[in-house]
Structure formats: C-alpha cells, structure tokens
C-alpha cells in the first residue's frame, strides 16, 4: 500500500456526549447543528443549544479537534432570521467552519462574517466544477462536500478543475435522492427534508408488529414496508421501502436498506484529491460514533503506515446489515 | 411469512399514533402470576428518582416524551416495567404480565440488550436494523428517550451504585446476574 498524507476525519455528533465521544475516538473534526430546522438532521431530542455548543467547542479545541456548524437546510420566506441568527451564533462561539447549502446564507456569511471559513454542504448538490467554482468565486467557499453520485475517477476530474478542498462521505446512510432536492417526505407528511431539516419525522413514523413479530412500517398513512420476522430492517424512509411496481412485486423500487462503506477505497479517494473523509450519522448513538470513528481512525492510520486495516466490525452497524461502495465504485451498483 | 409493502392511496386504515394502547400478553406464564412484585417497587422508585435527581438535563432533551408512558418488555424477565419520566414525579414500576397495561410506547428485547442500549454500549439503530429490539407506538417519544439517555455519560450500573450507597455492590451484582441469565435464556 502506498503511503499518503493523512486526510481529515470528519465525524458526526447529535448530542454533546456524542461530540465528546467522537473527539475521544480520534475525530479531527466534528460536525453538528443547533436545535431546530436550520440543519438537515432536525430529529426529536437531537442537536445542540447555544450553551451546549459553547462547551462542546471548548472540549474539542482543548483536544486539538475542530467543530463545524451544519446550517445546511434552506430557509423559507419569512424565516431567514432563524438561519442568520444560527450563523451569527456559530461565529460568536468560534466554530471552525460553517457548512451552508442555501445561496442566500452563503451570501450572508460572506458579507457579514468575511473571515469565517465557509464550507458548501452536500445539500447544495454542487457536483460540477462550474457549480463549485461559482460558490468559491462568489462567496469564498473553502471546501465542498460532494454529493454521493460521483465515481472516484469523476472526483479526480472535479478536483483538478476546482479551487477548493473536497470532502467526501465514506460511511453511513446512502440514498438515491438528488441531494437537497428530495421531496418524498414532504409529499407524504407535509414536512420538508430540505426546509424543516427532517426526513421521515418520527412523529409520522409508526411500527406495527403482529403476533409473529412481522413488522409493518408506516410513514404518515402509507405502509412503506412489511418486514418478516428475522428479516433485517432499515430506516423508515420512502426511498428504502418496498413496493409493488409494474416490474416487480415487493420490490425496493428506489434503494434497499444499505450503508455506504468506502474503507477499501480510502487510498483511491485520497489519491483523487479528497482532503476530508466524512462519516454520516448525526442521528446515531454514541455507540455508533465510538465504533465507526475509531474504526476509521485505525483504517486511516493503517493505510498511512502502509498496512491493511481490519474493518470487519463495521458491518454490524450498517443499515439492513449490508454495505455498498455505491456510485463511488460504479454508476451501475443497482 | 412475507407481506407485500405498497403505497396505496386508497388505504383507509387508521393508525393508533398519538393514542395510548393496551398491552396484553397472551403467553404470560404461571410464574408471572405468582410472583410478588411489591418488594421490587421501592427499589425501582429509588433508582428512577435518583437518576432524575443527578441528571436534570435528561428532561430538557426528553421534551414531550417526559409525559409519555413507556412499557418495557425485557424478554426473560417474568414482569414488565412501566416508566413515566415526568420531571415532577418520575415513576418506574413493575407490573404483572397478566395485567392489561395502557402505554404510549412499547420497547421489547432481551434484558441484556436493553441494558446495553441504555448504557450506549450498543447502537440502538443497529439493534433495530438487526431486529434485536422491537418498538411500537409513539415513535417520536422513544426517539426522545433514546437521545436523552444517549446524552448521559454515566451507565445505569454507575447510577444504581450511587443510588444505593453501601448496597451498591449487591445491586450491581443483581443487574449482572439478570443480564447473564436473560441474555442466555431469551
């Protein structure tokens, strides 16, 4: 294995305890959001108050880790102050970067806080050099989080044509949606993934077991899957449900429950110019954070030292007990 | 048995979401009926009140979940636990498996699995994906409770230890014993 310079390991945190766990497990950077709709993981009981984030930033900085504020949902008319206030709070608290998706928020950060490091969220859906360079030139974006739709070869071509860092997802949830454009949840529940920050809100999810422990999953008034006893389950999202279609019965029409795992592609990604490796999962528990972050810490360190890492334990944490390299390896993975 | 999932716009079935449900256990055995639960109640009361006292931040993250009734069905344990984490008067009581119990959320799994989840030694999403735990009822309430518990740095064993002072050692041994027995049986 060729040795390389270590990339930044960017890890999720939904609570202060998760943030401390991520830092202790070897994260170089932790990304998190304020409570409310300003971030794309606005789940019940998750995220940080301003006071919690202040303490968390201190905890991370004291241990040479940085903290990134995800303010990456899209403000709707009449609510922009909420997003602006979150940006102001993030700057005041000394967050090391603000991750935005909305073009108006990019302009707000660039105008009001020109010294604040700005990252472009995956929710912006910027996958072409033209789109990325626009954000770089207009707003001074320093890093783009690429949508999970590019092969490693395409990432290399993007890298060669842009003037900012690349952050790529390497583990966690993966769907077929166009990032930042998915309206499936909105269609069924009236709550928007992109503007309210929550996909399949728990308030609209119901699991209905029968006496044999078969499980029907409902979102709103719709049954989106029926899982037999002993069969693995996935997230209660429309894109991971099974449907009768003209092609097949009882079919994962969009995507099956599966997690992205790019451990084996890490050297290729770094050679392609990826600066930062991102783990998905701010909605997951401390146990997940501890296990995934420490596994990737070991994998990166092993590759950097020219060794082969042991990644066998990660499969236990995957959705549906299955993993994929998705579009990163081939556009024909389904 | 495999059901066919479908999006069916004509579906008229109403869900029970947001409404309390009634638990009945048709498989409840004779041990459950004969088991006296009254010696257990003061122990459970002490545990829940102690946890509430030393983790006031729990209730901020619990939000509306604090006013829900959580029914805990630990497989292999001959009784059920009912948790009401109301910050003004939190309760945890043992109930017979022969009782009809009103609840908002039902969580079931091996005792050892549930303990690992509470102490964040196992990821609850992964436990759910792998069907090691089963939840039904008010999904938002269980998510609130999961996230509130996950933000605690201590373990239940730690909290029991501080709740019972000199009796901590036998209490911890009891938890470990139940963990081993139910982990093997259920």
TrEMBL record, chain A:
Record keywords, A-Z: Hydrolase, Protease
Gene Ontology molecular-function annotations: peptidase activity
GO biological process, one term: proteolysis
InterPro entries xref list: Peptidase_U32, RNA/ubiquinone_mod_enzymes
Domain of life (superkingdom): Bacteria
Keyword Hydrolase part of the UniProt annotation: yes
Stored PANTHER family: PEPTIDASE U32 FAMILY, UBIQUINONE BIOSYNTHESIS PROTEIN UBIU
Protein name as annotated: Protease
TrEMBL record, chain B:
Alphabetical list of Pfam families matching this protein: SCP2
The SCP2 domain, residue ranges: 57-150
InterPro entries cross-referenced by the UniProt entry: SCP2_sterol-bd_dom, SCP2_sterol-bd_dom_sf
Protein name: SCP2 domain-containing protein
Organism: Maritalea porphyrae
Lineage of the organism: Bacteria, Pseudomonadati, Pseudomonadota, Alphaproteobacteria, Hyphomicrobiales
